[in-house]
Design brief:
Structural class: alpha+beta
Strand content: 15-25%
Shape: globular
Length: 698
């Protein structure tokens, strides 16, 4: 077997691994230059109002402080493409934590001390930060995120529900959740002869470049944004954030390079969050468990700055067959920070509610939860009627049940004990759409027989460099070690954002096309290659402009076993197993890492991660890792991820589906369903902390 045939699917070690563990990989806040200054934000301390005065004299007196930017002296911006980037432009305070000043100093310590010395006066107005089912400001938008219609109806869902002999009507609550990547949001900016260079912690430096160009009124070729190494993002770095604009403004104002890294406690207010959702699910079925009606209603919040509507009801449109369906999103604009993307936005929160309700239906009917899902498999996508390009959810459920030992399960709740521990198992389905965006790539053949690929992909920890090399090597019929990969700069051929589980499909399609073109050029070439080699550039604009006639989704099944302490209410996950159908797996090592990472994040969503909006002060109280609890290795003693071989010719040249997000989808529901099986108690609010469970324990 040749190296080229091993290139796709092989567990190739990620290329940048040694650089990261030895510290030679440089992140956004690790780029220094002579005269570098440091910025520190002064956040608003009121939830709504305007700034009436800012006194900076004491801050400027702090040794090392260079300047203080406020609305009065900050560079003027054009209207940015995202309202959250319009910082230091006026006196408004749309929410607590909004930047009202920026202190720039010769050291980080001086900048922080200067920020503490800035005195701000406000004229406050009443604020509203609490989301409720009957909030008077609720409205139905035209669209939820992703361009999905906010309201979709098939048949008569309410009539179908009322006529069903078995009905589930349940409300599930999920509070706000926060992205906490290891690397905080950071930017280092400098201006050289009118050219702006920004090292930014971002999931897409092309998008950041374009946003900065619009905000500063510059041509795009006068800006370079570099995101060579990024320490995680989970969606919060998917669009430009204020630190990139603030660092660039300060660098322009001072004439010196400026670095700005957000303290973790500021992130909840500045970089977005998963919006809280109140979800009502109504399922109607016959006594054999065949669904006749599915209704999923969502209430969520957005900010006063812009509309962002978590698309949590969308998965219910494609998951299960039923003649009647109604899915609706309603939203209220509150005085809160702007919500944004967080791993599997919509699917993670929506599938928690839907899969919990399916478990409740299985319990009401006395039908095995796996069997109930199999009985409601659709032939085509229920919402659009389009055929699935591939749908192997049934295979995932069956294979997962076999590997997990599901058939040996005693269906009776609260039937298994291990000392003071109550034991239970649960299952949930998972889905995530296949998305692809236009990207470009270059492929170069050098005279020495090596190859070089250029594409502005962003590696946020997924192994993008490695997989792009494998894709190119498979086309060029060369060992992947013979391929050099250049990524992470807006000066490279434009790549799409690393988000929506679309990065590999988008960049990989462009790399595949460019490499294929290079193979043809080389076949036509005679004689030795010129010193500069031969380069072919290609983009996928034509391919991505065509709408697929198929409904394209990845699917999966999650199984979990939990132990609940009958004395304290503590929940421990003993084992988790996921089985996925995600097209062709391009690198088994990095794929397993992505699946497991998503599952661990889903565990946090189920048991530890919770955020409370303080109604008095108007901010999230859990704003650091001391109070916002993410899972640790000790929380995950046994976690396994597997996949089935899936061939789908309707995707992309590699036959792959995205895998970065499906691991979190359904995990929280599987754990919640296991807790119900262990205790007999159905708690419909996450996270499942001891205080919520104790009232139901003997």
């Amino acid at each position: 077997m040749s190296d080229s045939t091993r290139a796709l699917g092989a567990p190739v070690v990620r290329r940048e691994g040694r650089d990261k563990v030895t510290g030679t990989a440089r992140y956004a806040a690790e780029h220094t230059a002579p005269g570098l200054l440091y910025g520190w934000i002064v956040p608003a301390t009121v939830a709504s109002g305007r700034v009436t005065a800012i006194r900076t004299a004491d801050a400027l007196a702090v040794p090392g402080v260079h300047t203080v930017l406020t609305k009065d002296n900050a560079p003027r911006l054009k209207e940015p493409d995202d309202p959250i980037l319009a910082v230091l432009q006026d006196d408004r305070v749309p929410h607590r934590g909004w930047p009202v000043a920026l202190v720039v100093a010769e050291s980080l310590e001086s900048a922080r001390a200067g920020a503490e010395a800035v005195y701000v006066e406000y004229a406050t107005t009443g604020h509203d930060v609490v989301l409720t089912w009957d909030h008077p400001g609720l409205y139905t938008p035209e669209e939820a995120n992703g361009g999905f219609p906010a309201l979709r109806e098939r048949g008569d869902a309410m009539r179908g529900f009322d006529a069903a002999p078995v009905r589930i009507d349940a409300t599930y609550t999920l509070g706000g959740l926060h992205n906490h990547p290891m690397e905080p949001h950071a930017s280092t900016a400098r201006w050289d002869d009118g050219h702006l260079t920004v090292h930014d912690s971002s999931q897409g430096s092309t998008v950041v470049r374009d946003s900065l160009a619009k905000a500063f009124g510059l041509d795009r070729d006068r800006i370079t944004v570099i995101s060579e190494h990024v320490g995680g993002g989970f969606g919060s770095k998917g669009t430009p954030r204020p630190q990139a604009v603030l660092a660039s403004m300060a660098a322009r104002h001072t004439g010196l390079p400026v670095q700005l890294a957000l303290p973790r406690r500021y992130m909840a207010a500045i970089v977005g969050h998963r919006a809280p959702t109140l979800q009502r699910v109504r399922l109607g079925a016959d006594r054999d468990g065949v669904l006749s009606s599915v209704s999923h209603e969502i209430v969520t919040h957005t900010s006063q700055i812009k509309e962002f509507v978590e698309q949590a009801a969308v998965p219910a449109r494609i998951m299960y067959a039923s003649p009647h369906s109604r899915t609706e999103h309603r939203v209220a604009a509150l005085d809160v920070p702007s919500p944004s993307w967080m791993r599997a936005p919509g699917e993670a929160s929506g599938m928690y509610a839907l899969e919990s309700a399916m478990d409740e239906l299985a319990n009401a009917l006395g039908i095995d939860p796996v069997e109930l899902r199999l009985r409601n498999e659709p032939q085509d996508e229920p919402d659009s009627g389009r055929p699935f390009s591939s749908r192997n959810l049934a295979a995932c459920l069956s294979e997962g049940a076999r590997r997990f030992g599901w058939l040996d399960r005693d269906p009776q709740p609260a039937a298994r004990e291990d000392g003071p521990w109550l034991l239970g198992t649960g299952v949930a389905s998972a889905t995530y759409p296949v998305m692809v965006s236009k990207s470009a790539a270059s492929a170069q053949a050098a005279p020495d027989g090596s190859y070089r690929i250029g594409v502005n992909a962003t590696d946020i920890g997924t192994g993008a460099r490695t997989v792009m090399a494998q894709i190119a090597a498979s086309v060029l019929d060369t060992p992947q070690e013979n391929v050099t990969i250049d990524i992470g700069s807006s000066d490279l051929p434009a790549g799409s954002v690393a988000g929506g589980s679309s990065g590999t499909a988008s960049w990989g399609s462009a790399v595949h096309k460019a490499a294929t073109g290079l193979v043809r050029r080389l076949a036509e070439h005679t004689g030795p290659l010129p010193p500069e080699g031969i380069t072919v550039t290609a983009d996928t604009g034509e391919e991505t402009a065509q709408e697929s006639p198929y409904s394209r989704h990845a699917f999966g099944a999650h199984f979990a076993e939990v132990a609940v302490d009958s004395l304290t209410g503590e929940v421990r996950v003993r084992r988790m197993l996921g089985v996925f159908a995600a097209g062709r797996i391009l690198n088994s090592r990095t794929a397993r890492s992505q699946f497991i990472g998503g599952m661990v994040m889903g565990l946090g969503m189920a048991l530890t991660e919770g955020s409370t909006m303080d109604p008095l002060f108007g901010d999230f109280t859990e704003c650091d890792l001391a109070s916002y609890h993410v899972p640790s290795c000790a929380d995950v003693p046994d976690i396994q991820a597997h996949w089935i071989d899936e061939e789908d010719p309707h995707l992309n040249p590699m036959g792959s589906k995205g895998i970065g997000e499906i691991g979190i989808v359904g995990t929280a529901a599987a754990i919640g369903n296991a807790v119900r099986h262990a205790t007999g108690a159905r708690v419909r609010e996450l996270p499942l902390t001891p205080d919520k469970l104790l009232p139901y324990l003997p």
